[in-house]
Amino acid sequence: MLRLLATIRKEWQLLLRDKTGLTLLFVMPMVLITVMALIQDAPFKDYQDVKFDILTVDNDHGRLGRYIREGLASGGQFNIIDTLDGRPVTEQQARELVNNGRYKISIIVPAGATAAIVSNANRIVNDITQRMGMSVSLPVKKGADSMNVVIYFDPAAKKAFKGAIHQALDNFLTQVETDMLLDRIKQQLRNKEVQATPNDTLPIRLQAVGLKEHATGNSRQLDVVSNSVQHNVPAWSIFAMFFIVIPIAGNMIREREDGSLLRMKLIPGSYLLILAGKMLFFVGICLLQFYLMMLVGIYAMPLLDLPKLAMGHDQGATLLVAGAIGLAATAYGILIGTLFKTPNQALNFGAISIVILSAIGGIWIPLEVMPVNMQVIGRLSPLSWGLDAINDIYLRNGDISYVWKNVLRLVLTGGVMLAVAGYVEKRRMN
Amino acid sequence: MASIAVKELCKTYKGAAEATLKGLTFAFPEGKIGGLLGPNGAGKTTTISILCGLVKADSGNVMIHGLPQEAAHREQIKKIIGIVPQQIALYPQLSAVENLTYFGNLYGFKGKVLYNRIMHYLEVFGLEKSAHKEIHKYSGGMKRRANIIAAILHEPDLLILDEPTAGVDVQSRSMILQFLRRYNEQGASILYTSHLLEEAQLLCDEVVIMDEGKMILQGKPELLISALPECRNLEDVFLHYTGHALRD
């Protein structure tokens, strides 16, 4: 026990003397998570939170144009711009302004679009009433060509964004056409049923089954799923925790180079206890880092106009996961410190390997948006296990039963890394 | 009884073209100061590493104070041995007291007993005024002295020193050599390696000259010198047996 405690105290003294190292361990990660959360705030926001300007050119001046304008505006997602410098926007202007990127999107409602819809509705009503033996003849445009509402997108617009706009406009068109058709059917029925009261609107409801979103777990969790703080704070905290490999590897190599490792090995008693003391200390540092960064997520992020971090409800599970991440990171540092001969080698390999493991492990971008093969590889990264486990707690309101598999993976990986380090060290003796 | 007895020691490192030790045999009596001398590449450091149990020999035997250097006796042997490595095996960012407290704790000493022992040795080595100064602020000689204290905190019966006076000033060297003599007078055995043959001649009761992994000569310095009429000192004897060719 004395060896263990003495080693923890010695590591603490060494860390306190290394002011630069201390800054790197605690301040840099906090800066990192703040910067990443700020940078990725916009892309992580829902389209509902972001307002786009839409240039609209209404050459129709009818019901369709009005429907589209009102429909887009009512969602709160778009600013409808139909005049520039006090003049109505022209199609030519709209095309140029979108093409040069000043606007993301422009919608052109062609002249006669409402009339075309009305004509089409009349044609259907005429057809139905004739089949029903009624003699109704609503005016129908003869020889009308099909007509299109034209959309111009910024060439840099994302496919998903284009798809969403297409979908929305398609809905408006369908809705206008359906409304007009129903209006005409209702009118004809009213004409036939003269006994009906004049104000009878004959309510016809087309949407018998609607859509409503529900949370899978605790309903409180749903609104924290997709924001930059919720992704970036845990993700980059795990990334920063893994950077503990640099001081650990440096510490191990220095001890080997300056002979203090040799001195420790020559002292009676198990070297494993010294190593355990070192590990405990650095796992403690990782935990301190983790919780400091969570505090930044909870208290500092809102000051920067970012959402507040929500840490889920099982703090015991969070501690367990953070400890397991710290253990895996520390073991990785010991392995690197054992494998490499110089601090430079360890620094370069350690830093680059963590960047790679974090990139494939979903720290930079979620695993789900990666190609399938990369997802398979990414699931092998200890950083992805850590992030999955944290997401289970923070986003899915999970407890230990959700995270134990990833915790076990992290602990076992740490164990394997330590065993490899031990084997290499033993081989070095021979 | 011999403090160190080495018999037919062989060692070839993996990937090495040539064996480092080729049947090295020597013994030093208990309670004496023995010198292990040899040019660069002679195998001194490998021999010391095997004596301490840090490196395994391919074949041969090592006995430390009558105990075979094997896994079964390693812990016992560690208690007997104190080693002063060539490097300053101390944490530069920590003070002498902090370093020595840590290594003392590893030996199982703590509290006042340890503190008093640390302060005693710091005084013996003239470091009491710099006890709380960080090691990286020490001069070369001060570092060497602190390095020795870390090896004797548990007061070992056998002290092994690998070039303990390399790069130190005359005053520090004199203090170190005086201490080693006093420590030896208290009954401890000392094994010492150095390239400073004048120093070895003054300090050692007996020396082993080794080259290319083998022992080529062993005896008391004065006897070795007198055996060769053309040699005036140990350095002449050393050059006589190991030659003038440069060793890289």
UniProtKB/TrEMBL annotation, chain A:
Alphabetical list of Pfam families matching this protein: ABC2_membrane_3
Membrane topology: Multi-pass membrane protein
Keywords, in A-Z order: Cell membrane, Membrane, Transmembrane, Transmembrane helix
Signal peptide: none
GO molecular-function terms, A-Z: ABC-type transporter activity
Stretches assigned to the ABC-2 type transporter transmembrane domain: 22-421
Protein name: ABC-2 type transport system permease protein
Organism, scientific name: Chitinophaga eiseniae
TrEMBL record, chain B:
Sequence intervals crossing the membrane: none
Entry GO MF terms: ATP binding; ATP hydrolysis activity
Matching InterPro entries: AAA+_ATPase (IPR003593), ABC_transporter-like_ATP-bd (IPR003439), ABC_transporter-like_CS (IPR017871), ABC_transporter_ATP-binding (IPR050763), P-loop_NTPase (IPR027417)
Keyword Flavoprotein: no
Pfam family, one: ABC_tran
Keywords: ATP-binding, Nodulation, Nucleotide-binding, Transport
Residues in ABC transporter domain copies: 4-237
Family: Belongs to the ABC transporter superfamily.
Cross-referenced PANTHER family: ABC TRANSPORTER ATP-BINDING PROTEIN (PTHR42711), ABC TRANSPORTER ATP-BINDING PROTEIN NATA (PTHR42711:SF5)
Protein name in the entry: ABC-2 type transport system ATP-binding protein
Organism: Chitinophaga eiseniae
